[in-house]
Amino acid sequence: MRRFVIGRGRNFLNRSHQQNLLSSSSSHCQSRFLSSTSVIDSPSSSSMAPTSSPAITVDSLNPKVLKCEYAVRGEIVSIAQELQTNPGSHSFDEILYCNIGNPQSLGQQPITFFREVLALCDHPSILDRSETQGLFSADSIERAWQILDQIPGRATGAYSHSQGIKGLRDTIAAGIEARDGFPADPNDIFLTDGASPAVHMMMQLLIRSENDGILCPIPQYPLYSASIALHGGTLVPYYLDEATGWGLETSEVKKQLEAAKAKGITVRALVVINPGNPTGQVLAEENQRAIVDFCKKEGLVLLADEVYQENVYVPEKKFHSFKKVSRSMGYGEKDISLVSFQSVSKGYHGECGKRGGYMEVTGFSPEVREQIYKVASVNLCSNISGQILASLVMSPPKVGDESYESYCAERDGILSSLARRAKTLEDAFNSLEGITCNKAEGAMYLFPRIQLPEKAIKAAEAEKTVPDAFYCRRLLNATGIVLVPGSGFGQVPGTWHFRCTILPQEDKIPAIVTRLTDFHKSFMDKFRN
Amino acid sequence: MAPKALDYESMNENVKKVQYAVRGELYLRASELQKEGKKIIFTNVGNPHALGQRPLTFPRQVVALCQAPFLLDDPNVGIVFPADAIARAKHYLSLTSGGLGAYSDSRGIPGVRKEVAEFIERRDGYPSDPELIFLTDGASKGVMQTLNCVIRGEGDGVLVPVPQYPLYSATISLLGGSLVPYYLEETANWGLDLNDLQQSVAQARSKGITVRAMVIINPGNPTGQCLSEANLREILRFCYQENLVLLGDEVYQQNIYQDERPFVSSKKVLMDMGPPFSKEVQLVSFHTVSKGYWGECGQRGGYFEMTNIPPKTVDEIYKIASIALSPNVPAQIFMGLMVNPLKPGDISYEQFVRESKGILESLRRRARMMTDGFNSCRNVVCNFTEGAMYSFPQIRLPPKAIEAAKRAGKVPDVFYCLRLLEATGISTVPGSGFGQKEGVFHLRTTILPAEEDMPAIMESFKKFNDEFMEQYEDYRGYSRM
C-alpha cells in the first residue's frame, strides 16, 4: 500500500549538530626539532633527526590548491557553524542555511517513485517476496526489475562500465531525445558522481597551462573559477548585464575574447550556465543561437551547464538545451564541440546527496573521446545508485503508470512552491532600501544588488573585510540567515550583491522576510550616509 | 570549417601520458569479444560482486530503508526487514541533515566519521580524531586529493612501489609530478629493501627531484604481500629521516590469507614507535568499502585519516573537498555499517557472521588454489597471495615468444595475455600495467571467480599456457617423441 512521502520518516531526519570544526587561523608550524632537553643532530649525520620542517605544510602545498576558493562553503559557513554550537546566545533560534542549493536539507521531500526504485535496487532480494508488493508500487517494482536486468549479474555493488551502465545510458539517451526532438547516442554519455566531476574532467583536458583561458560568466557558480585555478588555467570573465535581467551579449563575450587573445591567452571554451547560477536567468532561444554561432566561428568548446533545466518559473521562458538549439540550426558533430552537463541534485528531485549526473559529449574526434574515457576509467566508475537515479530523472513515470499521478502531484507541488518562494523573496528584497533584485526566472537563487552606503564600506575596510561579506556577516549574526557574499561569484567591480537560495520551506519564508527586513532597516539606520 | 578547440594535439599533455591498464587494452578487447558472444571471465579488476559474490544482507537492508524512509512508517515493514536493520536505518537517518538526498558536511557526516574514529581506536589501541577523517567517493578520490596537495610540479617526486596499482602512476602523470620507483623483490616474497629505497631516493635527488611522499600498499596490490611490523617500522623511520609524507593504502586490510603476518596499520606502528616519530611523521591512511569481504565497489565509499598534518594544511584539504560539495551519502552509511558492525545478540548478527566468514574463508581457499594452480604450469612461478585479491604470477616467456610479440607490435606480456584471452576468455591485466623489472613478465588476475569455477579456470589456463610454451620454446631440449 503506497502513500505519499510527505511528512514521512521526518522524525529520523533531524539535523545533526554541526560543531565548529575549523581550527582558528593561527599558524601552527610543527617544529621537527626536539625539545630543548634533547640533542639536535647535525644535518649531515645519518642518525634519526630530519633536516628540515615537515614535508607537507601550507607553505609547501601545491600553489594551485592554495589559490582556489569556493565561497559557497567558505568563511560565512564556518561562522554559521560556530554560532550553531552556541545556541541561546543569540536572538534567533535557528541557523537558516540559504547559502547552498541543498533542498532536502531544508525539508524538501524526495520523489517517492524514485526512492522506491532505488531502495529495491539496493536490496533486490526482497523482489522475490510477495510482501514486497504490499510495500512498494507495482511500477516501481517493474522499473527496478528492468534496471536490474540491465546490470550484469544484477550486481549493483559491482564497478560498472566506466561511462556508466549501458542500459541506463540508453534510457538517458532516449530521455534526451524525447526532450529535444533530436537523437542522442548512449556512447556520448559519461555518468559521473554529480555534474561537478564531469566539469573537472573537461577542464583537465582543456587546460595545458596558464596560457589557456576559459570564458566564464560573471557572476558565475564558483566551481568554474575553482576548477580553472586547480588545473592551472586562466579564467576569462564575460559580464552578464544586470540591467537587462542578466542578459548575455555575444558582443561582450567577443570583446573579452579579443582582450584575452591580445594578452597571449588561447581561449579554449565558453561556459554558459542556463538557467543561470547565481543569476537565475533563462536564455532566450535566439540568444542561444548567437552563442552557438559564436562558439562555432571562434572554435570554442561550448560547456553548457544545464543542471537547472527543470527549474523554470516564468511562463514566458522555456528551457531549450544547447544540443537542441545546435541541431535545430542544422549543426552536427562536425560543426560544434558541445559538452552538456546534467545533475540529479537540482530540478524538483533535489537529490544532492546521491551524487548523480552526466555529461553528454558531442562534436569531438574519436581520439579525444578515447582520452575522456581513459580519464574516467582511472576512477573506475561513478556510484551505481547515482547512475540509476540519473536514468530515472531522465525517464520519470509516464501517463498510465500507476505512480504517474502521485509523481506529478509531488513534482508540481515542489515546482509551484519554488516559483512562489522565488516571487515572495524577490518582492521582499526589492522592498528594501538600496536593494534591487532581478527576477529569478529559473534555478534556485536570488542575487540581489545592494547599494552599500559609504559609511558601511569604510567600516568593512576597517575590519579588513570585503563590503558584501561585511553585510552578510552582520546579517548572519543578527538573524541566523546564511547567505553567500556576491564577491564569491564575481560581480562588476564596485557593485555588491549576495546570493540567497529560495529553498527554505514555505512556512519559514514569512519569518525570513521579517528578519531580513528588520535587520536591513537597522543596518541602514546605522550606516546611512 | 572552424578550427576545433579541442583535438588530440591541443589536449593537456598530462592527460595523454596517463595509463591505466586495469581498464586498458586487454579489457577493451575482452569487451569487444563479449559483444561478439564469447564468454569472458573478467579477472582484470578487484570487483567481487561482478563475479558472483553476494552483497552482505544487513547493510543492504539498512540502506534500502534509508533510501525510502516512508517504509519505516509502514506497519508491514517488519515483515520484510528485521528490527535491527530498522533501528540502524533510523540511527543513520538521524545523523544526516535531511536524509540521503542532502549534501552532507564536505568531509562526510560527522556521526559517521565518529564511528570511523571509534573503529580505528578499537583496531589500533590509540585515539583517533574524527576531525582528521574525511569520507570520500571511494579511496581513489582521497588518494587523488592527497597527491594533488603534494605535487607542485614535475620537480616533485612520489616514491611508488613497483609493481604498483596504477592509480598512483596515473594520478602522478595527471598532476604533472614525477614517479620515483622502488622495486619490490619477488624472490624475497615481494619484500621491500631499504637499500633499494635509499638508492631510488638518491637517484631522484641527483636528477633535481624533491622527493615528497612515499606510497605503500599493504596488503599489496598486485603483489598481495603483507608487511611485517618490523618492515613498517623501517619504512616509518625512513620517512622520518627523509622527510616524506607516507600514504598508507590499506584498502585490503580485511583480506588476509595467512596467519604469520596479520594486518597491522601504519598508524598503530607509528604510535607504538613513540616520539619523535609518532609526533612528526606525516601519514595519510586510506580505506574503502570496495574490498575486504564487503566488496561494495559500486557504492564508491572510502575515507582517509590524517596524522601529523598541520591544521592549516587540513583546512586547505577541507577547502578542496568543499568544491566537490560532499561525498555520496549512501556510501557514507555503508562505511558507518562497515566500521560499526553488528554485535553478538543482534538479530542479524549470526547471518552477518556466517556471510562474512563464508566469503573470507572462500577467498583464502581460492588464494591457495590459484597460487598452486599457477605453480603447476610450465614456466610460471607464483608467489603466494598473502592478502588482497590478486595473483601475480611470473610468466617466463621464451625468447621466441618475445620475438613474436615484437613482430606483432605488442609488449610481450600484453601479447601473452591477448592470446590467453582469445583462447580461454580469461581477461587479465598484463604485468606491464603495474610495472616490473626489465625483462621480467607477469600478469595480474583476481582470486575472485566463484570457487566452484576455479578448477576449470585453472585447468583452462594451464592448457593454454603449456601449449603456448610448447609452441614458443626452443625444441632442442624438448622432444615430442
TrEMBL record, chain A:
Organism: Citrus clementina (Clementine)
One Pfam family cited in the UniProt record for this chain: Aminotran_1_2
UniProt EC number: 2.6.1.2
Pathway linked to the protein: Amino-acid degradation; L-alanine degradation via transaminase pathway; pyruvate from L-alanine: step 1/1; Photosynthesis; C4 acid pathway
A Gene Ontology molecular function term of the record: pyridoxal phosphate binding
This protein's name: alanine transaminase
SUPFAM superfamilies linked: PLP-dependent transferases (SSF53383)
Domain Aminotransferase class I/classII large: 153-507
GO biological process terms, semicolon-separated: L-alanine catabolic process
Coiled-coil boundaries: none
InterPro entries: ALAT1/2-like (IPR045088), Aminotransferase_I/II_large (IPR004839), PyrdxlP-dep_Trfase (IPR015424), PyrdxlP-dep_Trfase_major (IPR015421), PyrdxlP-dep_Trfase_small (IPR015422)
Family indicated by similarity: Belongs to the class-I pyridoxal-phosphate-dependent aminotransferase family. Alanine aminotransferase subfamily.
UniProt keyword annotations, A-Z: Aminotransferase, Pyridoxal phosphate, Transferase
Top-level enzyme category: transferase
Named cofactor requirement(s): pyridoxal 5'-phosphate
PANTHER family (alphabetical): ALANINE AMINOTRANSFERASE (PTHR11751), ALANINE TRANSAMINASE (PTHR11751:SF29)
The protein's assembly and partners: Homodimer.
From TrEMBL, chain B:
Species of the source: Citrus clementina
Catalyzed chemical reaction(s): glycine + 2-oxoglutarate = glyoxylate + L-glutamate; glyoxylate + L-alanine = glycine + pyruvate
Subcellular location: Peroxisome
GO cellular component, one term: peroxisome
Listed GO biological process terms: L-alanine catabolic process; photorespiration
Keyword set, alphabetical order: Aminotransferase, Peroxisome, Pyridoxal phosphate, Transferase
Name listed for the protein in its UniProt record: Aminotransferase class I/classII large domain-containing protein
Pathway noted in the entry: Amino-acid degradation; L-alanine degradation via transaminase pathway; pyruvate from L-alanine: step 1/1; Photosynthesis; C4 acid pathway
Domain Aminotransferase class I/classII large as annotated: residue spans: 85-450
Alphabetical list of Gene3D superfamilies matching this protein: 1.10.287.1970, Aspartate Aminotransferase, domain 1, Type I PLP-dependent aspartate aminotransferase-like (Major domain)
Assembly and oligomerization: Homodimer.
